[in-house]
């Protein structure tokens, strides 16, 4: 990594920390800076996702700053910790909207947090663009609410269709007890019969659970051909390991939330053959994804997960909006409403009239301990 690039990353992190303090009192930033808020679970049980958010956003800012900024002004990422909690997220939203120097907000991570904060952002006419809130309800959260991740409805329906292509006739669901997991459950249950797929079981777990033996034992009795995991990669790795111990021999399928090197590291041989859909896949035919992965590894000495990529893209489109339309809250919204075919690390993006992203996923599988395009 270039020494200058490392300096820019470190400087951006320091500015973000100092900027967070300024955001609390609502004071205007200096005129030579452009400030973008980042709302994420920096602490708590979902802190690893918050760190991915932070890294992705700060990388996007560092790159534009290394290139001279926007009209000579540096971009600052102002980080606020919503702890993955809806009530704290509302507090964070109120801090951001009261600081007129914050031009847009990248976040929140949880759909429940985004739904809770959307009225605050929309009332104050500031764009909130979520990298990860995929619950169907976000579609109608307001005209200032955007997201670069597709809806759970889209992903669950797409996966139901792929289940048929894979030859599954009986599928069980294990889903997170959250707006995210419930959204996946609801749509897959409705879509599966249309594709000739029977849902033979549906078992919920709470985020952070470690023991899945009871629900796996129940599912084993139903003899499914595959288990759809409607959750995140940490729990997915544990589920696959515990299924193997119970001699439950099934395929596993899931949405893009499972795409992470952590799934491979934590799950080991038990996640071999996993089939997921994904929008961020470096090394494939998306040059932007491959470039982002290389830049991220150079900056942080680790490989990015899908949430780092989504955060990078969300921050990048806000930066692009400011470059094209100026440093103004309303202008950012206008730009995003007309954005078409933006080439990013998570695919070619456009937004529909509800602020939902329009893009097409890749079909991926785990083969020999690596993610590969499914053939």
From TrEMBL:
Domain Leucine-binding protein: 33-353
Pfam families attached to this UniProt entry: Peripla_BP_6
Presence of the UniProt keyword Transport in the record: yes
Keyword Signal: yes
Signal peptide region: 1-22
InterPro entries: BCAA_transport, Leu-bd, Leu_Ile_Val-bd, Peripla_BP_I
Source organism superkingdom: Bacteria
GO biological process, one term: amino acid transport
Keywords associated with the record: Amino-acid transport, Signal, Transport
Family to which the UniProt record says this protein belongs: Belongs to the leucine-binding protein family.
Annotated protein name in UniProt: Branched-chain amino acid ABC transporter substrate-binding protein
